[in-house]
Specification:
This protein has helices spanning 2-6, 27-32, 34-45, 62-71, 85-91, 98-111, 130-142, 158-170, 175-182, 190-201, 210-243, and strands at 16-18, 49-53, 74-79, 115-122, 148-152. It is an alpha/beta fold and 244 residues long.
């Protein structure tokens, strides 16, 4: 179906962002392997794309991602909202260990696929300790992450009731605080959103975080490595086609 859509005359090659609504690498993907066909269709259409996931399972498809990189822009991002064991198990049950996700960030970048992290959702009183966030940023920098993003928790529609029921059982002491924060809105107040963003950009005050400094130093080097790897792959393919 994707291949057919990408062949439509009306399709102009817009960027395809996977994982922005739900994770394409959930458990069932390990059985059905739908993403391999999706990567192949994007490769054949030379269509720019990106993926956001919580799972190192995407490394299974690194071969196809590298093939996409030869013909189109591609990037990845791993969601790492916390590395605190208790918070992780309570808020993301049955998901891959956050430290394994950070290892996947490193492997993707070493292979030449630009990969960053998304520290989201940030939940006041649960995973917003500045020291823990800074540790995530430090580990991400060591993994060569090319970008960092993050945002506060959205509580829209039925999600609000589900989350508040969970909060009453996990952290009843925070229920009143969340009811005050969210009021009748699905979003955190602007001042709280700004506080959370500040931990990702300026966690220690006015100076840039260690993450930002390291990313700036490494980004140009990684981009050059990726260009060299892709050029080498193209040369190899050209030689192969000439011989056979």
């Amino acid at each position: 179906m994707l291949a057919a859509e990408l062949r439509r005359p009306s399709w102009t090659g817009e960027h395809v962002a996977m994982g922005t609504n739900t994770d394409p690498y959930q458990w069932v993907e390990g059985r059905y392997k739908l993403m391999r066909g999706i990567w192949a269709a994007l490769r054949d259409a030379r269509n720019p794309c990106s993926v956001l996931t919580k799972s190192p399972l995407l490394l299974r498809d690194l071969d196809l991602m590298l093939q996409v990189a030869e013909v189109a822009e591609i990037s990845a991002s791993l969601s790492v909202p916390t590395i605190d064991e208790r918070a992780w198990r309570a808020t993301e049950p049955h998901t891959p260990n956050p430290r394994a996700r950070l290892e996947a960030v490193g492997e993707l970048n070493r292979a030449g696929i630009p990969c960053g992290i998304l520290v989201a959702p940030l939940m006041p009183g649960i995973n917003d300790d500045p020291r823990q966030v800074e540790e995530i940023l430090t580990l991400a920098a060591e993994a060569g992450a090319t970008s960092v993003g993050g945002q506060g928790l959205f509580l829209r529609g039925e999600t609000r009731g589900v989350f508040m029921d969970w909060l009453r059982s996990y952290r009843p002491d925070l229920v009143d605080h969340y009811e005050e924060l969210y009021g009748t809105s699905g979003y955190l107040p602007a001042r709280e959103q700004e506080r959370l963003r500040g931990m990702l950009v300026h966690p220690d005050g006015p100076r840039p975080s260690a993450f930002r400094l390291r990313v700036q130093e490494r980004r140009a080097h990684q981009a050059e490595q990726a260009r060299q790897a892709i050029a080498a792959a193209r040369r190899s393919r050209t030689v192969q086609e000439a011989l056979f």
